Amino acid sequence: HNYLKQSYLLTSRCLTGMISDSTLDDTTKSKCDFYTRQFIDAMSPSNFAMTNPEVLKETLESKGQNLVQGLENLMQDMEKGRISMTDESAFELGKDLAATPGSVIFQNELMQLIQFKPLAEKVNERPVLIVPPCINKYYILDLSEHNSYVRYCLEQGNNVFIISWRNPDEALGDKTWDDYLDQGTIRAVDAVRNITGAKKINAVAWCIGGTLLATTMAVLAAKGKKPFATATFFTTLLDFSDPGELGVFIDESQVNQHEYKLAEGGVMPGKQLATTFAMLRANDLIWNYVVNNYLKGKTPPPFDILYWNGDSTNMTAAMYTWYLREMYLENKLAEPGALELCGVPVDLGEIDCPVYYLSTIDDHIAPWKTTFISTELLKCPMKFVLGASGHVAGVINPAAKNKRNFWVNGETGQGADHWLETAESLPGSWWPHWDQWLKSHGGKEIPAPEQVGNSDYAEIEPAPGAYVLTRAS
Predict the structure, then answer these.
(1) What pLDDT is attached to residue 453?
(2) Cα–Cα nearest to 293, from 473, 90, 82
(3) What is the pLDDT of residue 264?
(4) Which pLDDT value is given to residue 347?
(5) Which helix (H) or strand (E) holds 48?
(6) Would you give the DSSP letter of residue 176?
(7) CA separation, residue 233 to residues 52, 54, 132, 207 (Å)
(8) CA distance 191 to 184
(9) Which residues pair with 416 in a beta bridge?
(10) Which of 23, 188, 374, 440 has the fewest C-beta atoms lying within 10 Å of its C-beta?
(11) Quick one: pLDDT at residue 267?
(12) Active-site hit among 207, 342, 353, 380
């Protein structure tokens, strides 16, 4: 086995070295390197029963029962259309996950708006509206009780609302970015202000939800409306000039193909989007489970984040193709006035409220050095913070666990590398740091509301609501 291992490693180095030393242009070289690494990962001796010593040992000890069970696991996953990454029977939405008490107080065809019951006697007069990514379920921010960001916000004395995006079907395929602003974020802002009576609110958004929030703020600013006291962005791209390895999937030819396939509407299946993201970390998110589930015949252990990761969401055809071309391919959001949304030109420079901008150092979806460009795009007072770990684990880092670290107070204006060199590393979670920042920007304490909603926004159903329960087909 050691001979196979060394042969594999030598061959891998040879293949990657050939690409590195080639005279290909940078774009082509990146694609060749990416797909070569996909091939190298797939051909690892550990991925085959006869060349994996752990699988051979398991097979001998169980008299082949691991392979029998592995075949059953494979057949079950083929029916689901995806690889199981966790024991899905261990979780139930509304009980084990997304269990923070609250109510749906508004809904339309694109989203439900949830208001959570306060967990403190007094709350900030400025409510918190959370805008999760529309390509994922909201409960990544409300996992189990010990690692729920929503619960943490409530415990710190906030009146918290969150958007639960609908998992769109083909009937909603013509819904555009404009629709997600008009019927989604803008509608939610109006509802939150109506219910609470607040003139200004604190907004929090993650990933593409952050891009939605930023465009919402710019659109409202262009119309003379500024209802935001602060804005917080998690791992959000506003400049798409360097999307990292995701760029392998985005060029004129591939975007044209998507536009052609989705020209008549419909949706971009969430499972395809999930597969794309999994390919960015193939060993961790694909081959690890191939070996565990199919060769060793084991069931992966319960893991709330991976349960959420497997609960994929579709994206409407109109929004998906527009997002690829206008944001990723042509990077129009970074250019003032290049985009027109909701009938007005978009200029991120019009955002003037204080901003807390969190990125993560190992993010493979929103590379932190690209998100750092936002410090130049936004002209408002900004606190840029860099968390440890990746796109999800770096955000969901509960204060009580006191894990990892984060960087703050680097020097801006001289690029991302200089910022990190001059930044201060602090131990533990960034959550308390954010809470202190939020409190430093004002808003007096008022008695917590005794009930959710009001006469205009009555309770429709208990949280987590019906939309989050709909799984992508």
Answers:
(1) 95
(2) 82
(3) 87
(4) 98
(5) none
(6) -
(7) 44, 44, 10, 8
(8) 11
(9) none
(10) 23
(11) 95
(12) 207
Q: What is the pTM of this model?
A: 0.94
Tokens of 408: 């703050």
In three-state secondary structure terms, 436 is: helix
* Predicted confidence band of residue 316 (pLDDT cuts 50, 70, 90): very high
Strands 102-107 and 461-462, by their bridges, are antiparallel
Token representation of residue 307:
């349960």
In angstroms, the Cα distances linking 337 to 218, 323, 352, 429 are 10, 17, 17, 37
Query: How many residues can be counted in the chain?
Result: 473
Q: Which residues pair with 386 in a beta bridge?
A: 359, 407
User: Rounded to whole angstroms, how far apart are CA atoms 252 and 125?
Assistant: 48
Could you name the CATH architecture of 102-250+313-469?
3-Layer(aba) Sandwich (3.40)
Q: What is the DSSP string of 59-125?
A: HHHHTTHHHHHHHHHHHHHHHHTS---S-GGG--BTTTBS-S-EEEEEE-SSEEEEEEPPSSSEEES
The percentage of the chain sitting over the pLDDT mark of 90, rounded to a whole number, equals 96
Annotated catalytic residue 207? yes
Task: Name 114's bridge partners.
Answer: 104, 162
The mean of the pLDDT values for the chain is 96
Task: Report pLDDT digits (tens) over 56-90.
Answer: 999 999 999 999 999 999 999 999 888 999 999 99
Amino acid in the structure at residue 421: E
Q: What is the DSSP string of 266-332?
A: -EE-HHHHHHHHHHTTHIIIIIHHIIIIIIS-PPPPP-HHHHHHHS---EEHHHHHHIIIIIIIT-G
How far is it, in rounded angstroms, from Cα 185 to Cα 190? 9
3-class secondary structure, 159: coil
Model confidence over 130-141: pLDDT tens digits? Answer: 999 999 999 999
Sequence ranges of the domains in the chain: 102-250+313-469
